[in-house]
Amino acid sequence: MKTVADYLxxxxxxxxVTHVFGIIGKSICPAVLKxxxxxxxxxxxxxxxxxxxxxxxxxxxxGRLGVAFATSGPGGTNLLTAAAxxxxxxxxxxxxxxxxxxxxxxxxxxxxxxxxxxxxxxxFRPATLFxxxxxxxxxxxxxLNHALSIALGPNKGPVHLCLPxxxxxxxxxxxxxxVPEPEPRISISNLNxxxxxxxxxxxxxxxxxxxxxxxxxxxxxxxxAEQFQIPVITTPGGKGAIAWDHPLYHGPCGVGGFPHADExxxxxxxxxxxxxRLSDMTICNLKPENHPAHLIQFDSDPAFVGKILDSQTxxxxxxxxxxxxxxxxxxxxxxPPEREPNxxxxxxxxxxxPNLSLASILDELSDMLPYDHTLxxxxxxxxxxxxxxxxxxxxxxxxxxxxxxxxxxAIGMAIGAKAAAPDETIVCITGDGCFMMLGAEIxxxxxxxxxxxxxxxxxxxxxxxxxxxQKTTGRIDGTLFEVPMDASxxxxxxxxxxxxxxxxxxxxxxxxxxxxxxxxxxIELLTDxxxxxxxxxxxxxxN
Length: 543
Hints:
about 550 residues; alpha/beta; 6-stranded parallel beta sheet; Thiamin_PyroP_enz_TPP-bd_dom; Thiamine pyrophosphate-binding protein; thiamine pyrophosphate
């Protein structure tokens, strides 16, 4: 006889999970202690939201299940933001929350998770792909099997189980858990309709979204572009799908993009969209009269396919990598058309400023880091500066969420990724606003010897909000930090090595020293407050 907590821990171990992230409390104690007993390393975070981001970073880095847990009540509600972030980014994360014993339902309790106060099973439903309260031990196997089949299935994403204290400790004679096996998923009939559309197109364009990075379909993207000699642009979240200097790459489009990529958007007659929802962050500069005649959209989620543009749409459902491999495998005798080679320099000049320009730092940052690194970028002006200026050399090494766009997510994700890949250089670019939200998580990295390099861009304001409000309303209410933070002193207080840079030379020296230290390091980068971020296209009219 084993407890439900035993079966949960055994299953996670069989799935290859090595680390779990969360904050322990009474109602989740039995499950967490069994995870530790079964050899999983427990990394306690400083805030439950960060533990969810850490699990997401772990899932992204490994391709396996990430696990985040919290106690009942507010511990669980603090995980909700991270759950929605994982859903927006198609990351397989199992969120586990505690719950008072079923036998005690109806008794008012501290940190209640029942329908009498904060019904976590209900709250997690819109933020995940599946959420359920496990009311009995003999229901656990069925519900865990179902949750895993969804999290690791065709449309990967987060799931949630709420485990009452007495259910975790309930003894079961047996509990059969089936580990899901991936299966190829291709849309054969629609794939066969692609070639005629390509042959008729005069100006085809590949729009590579973050789905390319999530599916690890970088080689397939390259093969497709080279086979048909089609130019490639990237969405903000798709940055890094292709190396920055490939002859067929024409730069990022939309918010954080370059004008040249947006020009291609407006003149193409066929879009081949790989793993993008075509959100406002991507097509903000596309004019309504320039929607392409045809659209081929590879997307496992049909929610927005064919609904955004006035184009005749061919939907390719299923796994992006599997579909591209099938398509390319059936084009062995195809003669590519002669198209004009890319001789366009899509970059624009760097700004000239009296103080340190963030764009100038990002323009050279990849040359200061080893080839094998991953850069996690937080949301804000600094993120879109990175989308525009950072020169990705290794496809898939740039991680940025422009869709749910949760400030502070990159801090936790970088820590989770480092736990999964201790030998890889992991760097996080965050802002002073993000850092004041979840910067205490630096202490988690310090305590568990996870040497991430954090670059904190400090311009003493909520820059993206300030510049956007200033342009659209002429006002900047609530966007200035009257007492700016000292990020380097805060980092020192959390146990990290700290540096402060106000010039290009100081930053170069600090980054070199941080890499040599091989410990958690925070580089505070004080940049020019008046630098204009590449987000000005996306404005709101409040009149």
